What does this fold into?
Amino acid sequence: MTPHFLTRTLDRSATIFLLIVAAVGILIPLSNLLLPADSPLQVPTYLMALFGKYVCYAILALSIDLIWGYCGILSLGHGAFFALGGYAMGMYLMRQIGSRGVYGNPILPDFMVFLNYKALPWYWYGFDMFWFAAAMVLIAPGILAFVFGWLTFRSRVSGVYLSIITQAMTYALLLAFFRNDFGFGGNNGLTDFKDILGFNVQADGTRAALFALSCLALIIGFLVCRAIVTSKLGKVLIAIRDAESRTRFLGYRVESYKLFVFTLSACMAGVAGALYVPQVGIINPGEFAPANSIEAVIWVAVGGRGTLVGAALGAVVVNYAKTVFTSGALAPYWLFMLGALFILVTLLLPKGIIGTFNAWSESRKASNSANADSAAAEDGVTKPHLAEKAS
It folds into this structure.
């Protein structure tokens, strides 16, 4: 009998992770909507939006762990795909403002009226429809990743050179989106959103729904990644990570595998960006900053590269620390603390939090098994030989 999909792809830690995410995605919105404001168990709206941002970052971390932890592709430009998905959703939200903007123009967003645009640019067409914007959330980062990956992987660019090129890509997009004549709001970006699917984006119910949807997207993204890494495809990806030349000599089209997983990872990052924008309320070129992509890699390293669960955990832990330490006297030193954290994890916990815990757990099981065998030998109990089993 073929084992069920979930029992085949999920281990104990993955199952616990999914149950926790599902519980959080249900209980926090219910707490916000159903409990009175003076209740100690009530989660305020601002805190729910903050947690929603953490969940979106966890999806981004998953997308990076899929290519870095299992295929050895270290991308320092994944923030570009995150930002493109965010801009696609932001364009839809801007088109929903209509005549309620400062200048009252039913077609042009306020920044276009301010910059004397005569007509809506052609690449803004269709973003007044949600289905089109949702498709572009996947298509825009997916096409960029496909073209970029096809050119680089076909040229067999890898290692540090690939990391530098991805960083150059996101920096080029940063400079382009900063331009006022580029048609995306320049330095200020896109903001002042009103509605999403006809619902007030600032309403508690809408924010609760966005948070629950983010948790659902995290669960789906995790299941997709888990299904890939536990399949035959995942074994090929690990082989590419550990011995790319040998895998190529065995007859596998390494470039095709890399291109597929890189494009899928970019689409996941785009979904994270699209869910991030309505909860935060703004998207600007700062999301393209190379430092953001590097910070996302640190999340994965802290949580545990090649574990999936660790990547999501690292995103939440590091960003929670960032929220705490950037709101007090230590705010000017946060980047130094982040760098120190990365160095300490690299030196003391090279496998990250979850990776180190898994290694400790496995060594403990092996030690207990060895002790049990030793005790059995002392009692005169030995394992039966093959001949005895056969008889």
